[in-house]
Design goal:
alpha+beta, 7-stranded beta/alpha barrel, Immunoglobulin-like, Beta-galactosidase, Chain A, domain 5, 4 domains, ten-stranded antiparallel β-sheet, six-stranded antiparallel β-sheet, 17 helices, 23% helix
């Protein structure tokens, strides 16, 4: 049988090994439907996780099948073979990473066959990202990047026929409004997913609201996008899984004694009729697949062929069910033709609950160190992309190193990667992959900076352990060390820089030899006590730096001890407490008051506002579940289910460092929790740098650690969280937009993803917390905000990962360190929005490189474009090499106050050697002038369409060239708008 299959494949490939005929992809390739019938769109698909229970490579090659039987290369092998046998068959491919790896290994003959299948719409790409990204814990910048990567690959390989038009987010554990907005801005017609709060889904099934029009942005016009919820997860109908890994009966026809055609057809028609009662149209979409299915695609397609034949045969007897192979894009095309209205949606789909005791809100925080590493990876990626453009690094090795980092970051967006919901061995493999990619891309940064500065032999080393005040480069001495700071922001930025050093006297000078004020401060003893941390550097040198794009600072050691740390050493609180048992720490902008008895914060004064603010750490102990039943489920990688009690920790021990430029209060909470609260001179925020771990498990209890900020603000049950780092959404305790939630788990049921910030306010005051990684957050009482920092659990939550989230390192529980930034301000009509630029600055703070030199280093400024024409509210979201002679620029207006801004990019275009410039969709791979996506109307809008309608570009897309005047290079941005451009260069300088 295997020999016959191989021969058949050879013959089929031989027959198609001719020039590809005229492209018939897109809606021209959609199957015909029938009036007055239920048209059933069967969608063959395989959901292939880019890592979960096995590593990425193990899934691709099909190894370690004792863990999970899955081999993606065989899926694609056999799917292509089966599609070539019958022109009616269809299949959708989603994860571009897996496809690209498989396609690169194929012979030219097989590649031509695949080209033909794509050109004829028989193999259709859906989703199109490098991975199927998570939607709770990802940052929008990384989501855009991973779609740019996947869609560029498909465009370069297959042209227009390779471009998806549908978002296929079937497995993420909840869905964000920003993700929907990204799809709309990429020109997608709609999106589909499979997970929704079980109460919400039940109500929508009853009310015929499984499909809706989602208003995906508060600010952007034309942002509405069709969104559909799948009926039966993303699985085949019950009893109709024809995969080799399933046990459902095949369709047995012919003269066999076991012939089951009548019963199977009846069962399927009954299912279709039941399903159709929950949808508004005469079209329904039925996925045929599941995780890693179609490894022997002949089995799947042979049975689906029979199912289609025998179900449609019933039409002669009066059946009104019409079944055929289809795709999500063809299904949505038919809905668009109906010219009807649909339910509306404005908020998001968080949190996700699969039953009354299972809120999937734990993964908002799971694996906190990996979540931080992921954010560091994005930060370095943006930095290196910009440096590569500035230095014109277009060599093969440079391109390969940057592509490797791009792909690693694309994989890290996967909904079982950044979420922390993978097995421990897989988590380590993700870290290995990202670390290797960062090290490779450091070569790009080094080569770029050697060109952009006069340090032609500079080391330009990065230190990835600055979060624990460690750096190998300064381990022995920081004498004659050049610190090169790269600012990936558009505008000049002033920030404080901390360099791990020995306790010596230093002088810091800028490029002109001028002394920059600095001081040496001690590293907290809790950090010095970290196991396996080299303690050669027990202090940090702190100085303020102002950087436009690149700046160098020289550190030298002086013999005089005037600035040495012992002269300003921190000392026990008892030495400075006054008769009121208070410690006051203040600078010109911020004033903090601490209770020296309890060791806790009491009040904060800033921006002319004073508020009682008590910050504490607390422990949620896990529910003692021992199996996967709903009412006995425990917290795990996905689920947060505390036992209902919380242990608030108090009686902190304090010490105080009273510096000139920075003042720090060091809190020792217990033997595994400590914190530094600091304020910098001239900086209008409070920084909380927490250290948590190893979380003890001696009592055999899992624990989830939170920090809580309590105030007297009358927030009336409302608070605000960001959507993937962009727009803010209002949350209301125990409430949802569309339904009354099951609040059996009232704590976890009020947790939301916090990618960048969370805030609350009343009529007078607002507090905002900005974080340095994705975390879960809530406001469980008026005036309170809390963020979950770390989790260590001893039980699995029985949702598939199969092991407890019990991270260890060096033989003990994992230790995590991170930062939260606190802002107190007057209330405003739009809480949050003043902090968006700050959030972006914190995400993209100066990247620090180190080199040895005894001379002042300078920057070759003639190589750096001038961005001074950009308004202050406009940031350079992307600045990267798109191809060897093309540059991609993506700009964003961070303003939310209704102000339209305009500026001219002619000088930037000219400085980059531009020949032509054109505007694209958000992903950068389709000219914006070509965008044409389905427009649907909402119920109650008062619009009753009489013909199909479309959304086009929301403005006149830029398309200019070097012969035109500067008037043709004006960019106008409405609030929160992102615009993307490609610059074609005239030449490539060496």
């Amino acid at each position: 049988m295997e020999y016959f299959s191989s021969v058949l494949l050879f013959i089929t490939l031989f027959l198609v090994n001719t020039a590809i005929s005229e492209k018939t992809c897109g809606f021209k390739a959609c199957p015909s439907t029938k009036l007055n019938m239920i048209n059933v769109h069967l969608v063959p698909h395989s959901h292939d996780d880019v890592g979960w229970l096995k590593t990425v490579d193990q899934y691709y090659y099909g190894s370690q099948n004792r863990i999970q039987h899955a081999g993606v290369q065989y899926i694609l092998d056999t799917v292509v073979e089966e599609l070539l046998k019958d022109s009616k068959r269809r299949f959708i491919q989603v994860e571009t990473f897996f496809f690209s790896k498989w396609y690169s290994e194929q012979t030219e003959t097989v590649q031509r066959a695949v080209q033909k299948l794509v050109a004829e719409g028989r193999l259709e790409f859906t989703g199109g990202g490098w991975s199927m990204n998570d939607e709770a814990t990802v940052h929008y910048q990384s989501v855009i990047d991973q779609f740019k990567l996947g869609l560029k690959y498909l465009k370069d390989t297959f042209g227009d026929c390779g471009r998806p038009t549908i978002g296929w987010q079937i497995d993420p554990f909840g869905h964000s409004r920003e993700q929907a907005s990204i799809f709309a801005q990429m020109g997608y017609n709609g999106q589909f997913f499979a997970r929704m709060d079980y109460v919400d889904k039940k109500k929508r099934l009853e009310d015929l609201e499984m499909e809706m029009i989602w208003q995906s942005s508060e600010y952007l016009k034309n942002s509405n996008i069709f969104t559909g919820m799948l009926y039966n997860h993303y699985s085949s109908p019950p009893g109709f899984c024809f995969d080799i890994n399933c046990e459902d009966a095949p369709i047995i026809d012919g003269e066999s004694y076991d012939n089951n055609v009548d019963q199977r057809v009846t069962d399927f028609i009954d299912y279709v009729k039941m399903m159709s009662r929950s949808f508004r149209s005469t079209h329904i979409m039925v996925p045929m697949g599941d995780d890693f299915q179609y490894e022997d695609a002949a089995v799947n397609f042979k049975n689906m062929d029979k199912l289609i034949k025998y179900v449609n045969d019933r039409q002669s007897g009066g059946s009104q069910v019409n079944v055929f192979y289809s795709t999500p894009s063809c299904y949505l095309y038919e809905l668009h033709q109906l010219e009807q209205t649909w339910p509306n949606k404005t908020e998001d789909f968080f949190p996700y609950s699969s039953d009354s005791h299972s809120y999937w809100t734990g993964y908002f925080t799971s694996r906190p160190t990996q979540k931080r590493f992921h954010r560091d990876g994005n930060h370095f990626f943006q930095t290196v992309k910009q440096l590569s453009v500035l230095a014109n690094l277009t060599g093969t090795q440079h391109s390969e190193d940057l592509e490797t980092l791009s792909q690693a970051m694309g994989i890290m967006q996967h909904h079982d990667a950044v979420t922390g919901t993978e097995k421990q061995a897989v988590a380590r493999d993700y870290d290995r992959m990202l670390y290797k990619a960062i090290v490779g891309a450091e070569n790009n940064a080094r080569d770029a900076l050697r060109s952009l500065t006069n340090l032609t032999s500079g080391e330009f080393e990065s230190c990835l352990e600055l979060n624990i005040s460690a750096c190998a480069f300064t381990q022995n001495t920081a004498n004659n060390v050049v610190v090169t700071l790269v600012n990936s922001l558009t505008h000049k930025s002033t920030q404080y820089v901390r360099v791990p050093v020995k306790n010596e006297n230093y002088i810091v000078t800028d490029e002109k030899g001028r002394e920059v004020p600095s001081e040496v401060i001690p590293v907290p003893w809790q950090v010095l006590a970290l196991e396996h941390r080299s303690n050669g550097t027990q202090h940090e040198l702190v100085f303020k730096a102002s950087v436009e794009k690149i700046a160098n600072f020289l550190i030298r050691v002086l013999p005089s001890p005037k600035n040495m740390a012992q002269n300003n050493m921190h000392f026990p609180i008892e030495k400075i407490q006054d008769e009121n048992d208070e410690l006051r720490v203040e600078n010109s902008l911020v004033k903090l008051t601490f209770d020296t008895i309890t060791g806790t914060l009491k009040t904060i004064e800033m921006n002319g506002v004073t508020e009682n603010v008590q910050q504490s750490f607390a422990i949620y102990k896990g529910f003692r579940g021992n199996n996967g039943e709903s009412n006995n489920r425990s917290s795990g990688a996905y689920v947060f289910r505390p036992d209902g009690e919380i242990e608030v920790l108090s009686n902190n021990k304090l010490s105080f460092y009273n510096g000139t430029r920075v003042k720090e209060v060091h809190q020792h909470v217990n033997e595994w929790i400590s914190q530094v609260i600091r304020i910098y001179d001239g900086v209008n925020r409070v920084e909380f740098e927490w250290l948590v771990g190893p979380i003890p498990t001696d009592d055999e209890m899992g624990k989830e650690i939170i920090t809580r900020f309590s105030t007297n603000i009358s927030s009336e049950g409302k608070f605000y969280t960001d959507s993937n780092g962009r727009e803010m959404l209002e949350r209301e305790r125990n409430q949802r937009e569309h339904f009354d939630p099951d609040m059996s788990e009232s704590i976890s049921g009020n947790y939301y993803p916090v990618t960048g910030q969370i805030s609350l306010q009343d009529d007078e005051k607002r507090i905002t917390l900005l974080n340095d990684r994705a975390q879960g957050g809530a406001s469980l009482k008026d005036g309170e905000l809390e963020l979950m920092l770390h989790r260590r659990l001893l039980s699995d939550d029985a949702f598939g990962v199969g092991e407890a989230l019990n991270e260890t390192q060096y033989g003990t529980g994992l230790i995590a360190r991170g930062k939260i930034y606190f802002i107190l301000d007057d209330a405003s009509e739009k809480p949050n929005h003043a902090e968006r630029l700050l959030q972006h600055e914190l995400d993209q703070h100066f990247w620090t490189f180190f080199s040895k030199s005894n001379a002042v280093a300078s920057v070759n400024r003639h190589m750096i474009p001038d961005f001074s024409d950009f308004p202050q509210s406009v940031e350079l979201l992307s600045f990267e090499q798109y191809s060897k002679d093309q540059i991609l620029i993506r700009v964003e207006n961070f303003n939310t106050e209704g102000n339209v801004v305009s500026f001219n990019i002619y000088h930037l275009f000219e400085s980059l050697g531009g020949d032509r410039i054109w505007e694209t969709t958000l992903d950068g791979n389709m000219q914006l002038i070509d965008m044409k996506r389905f427009k649907f109307h909402q119920d109650g809008s008062g619009v009753f369409p009489s013909s199909v309608e479309y959304y086009y570009a929301p403005h006149n897309p830029m398309s200019s060239n070097s012969t035109m005047s500067a008037d043709h290079f004006v960019v106008t941005l409405v609030p929160m708008q992102i615009r993307t451009f490609i610059i074609q260069q005239k030449y490539i300088s060496n």
